[in-house]
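ARCHIVE CARD
CATEGORY: sequence design from structure
SOURCE FIELD: tokenized fold
FIELD CONTENT:
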């Protein structure tokens, strides 16, 4: 690894990623025509804002080590099996969810990749905790996707 990661640099980058995600989702909410997709983008922006606030609390020392670690997560692996939809004004809700799941997947992979290159210790633990959080976010979005894309029929 060329540059040594510090807790502060990891947290600053994670906060910046949350801010970028908020801005993207707000922009998409203003762009899409489908009401359900617009609402989902607004909700995703709010969720990313909460993630930013959680990270800022961690920076201020208001949260202890391991607080960011997610519990057991079931990975539906939907983002791995479906092509990412192009961003366009007429996106449907299932496409919005696929896009969001793909972003969470990319964030998870980024943190895991950085953790793999970081020696054991607090920075690596933080990177792994952030990766587990992103995987948990991906799981929530993919669960919603299964409900939207594959609705239960009235016979079972």
């Amino acid at each position: 690894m060329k540059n040594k990661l510090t807790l502060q640099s990891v947290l600053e980058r994670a906060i910046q990623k949350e801010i970028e995600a908020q801005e993207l989702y707000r922009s998409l909410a203003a762009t899409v025509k489908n009401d359900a997709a617009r609402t989902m983008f607004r909700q995703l922006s709010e969720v990313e804002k909460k993630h930013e606030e959680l990270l800022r609390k961690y920076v201020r020392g208001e949260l202890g080590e391991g607080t960011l670690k997610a519990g057991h997560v079931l990975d539906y692996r939907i983002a791995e099996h479906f092509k990412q939809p192009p961003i366009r004004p007429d996106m449907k809700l299932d496409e919005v969810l696929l896009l969001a799941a793909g972003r969470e997947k990319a964030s998870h992979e980024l943190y895991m990749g950085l953790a793999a290159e970081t020696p054991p210790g607090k920075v690596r633990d933080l990177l792994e905790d952030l990766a587990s959080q992103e995987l948990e976010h991906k799981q929530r979005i993919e669960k919603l996707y299964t409900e939207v894309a594959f609705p239960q029929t009235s016979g079972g």
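CARD ANNOTATION: The chain has a mean pLDDT of 88. The radius of gyration is 17 Å.
SHELF: design records, drawer C
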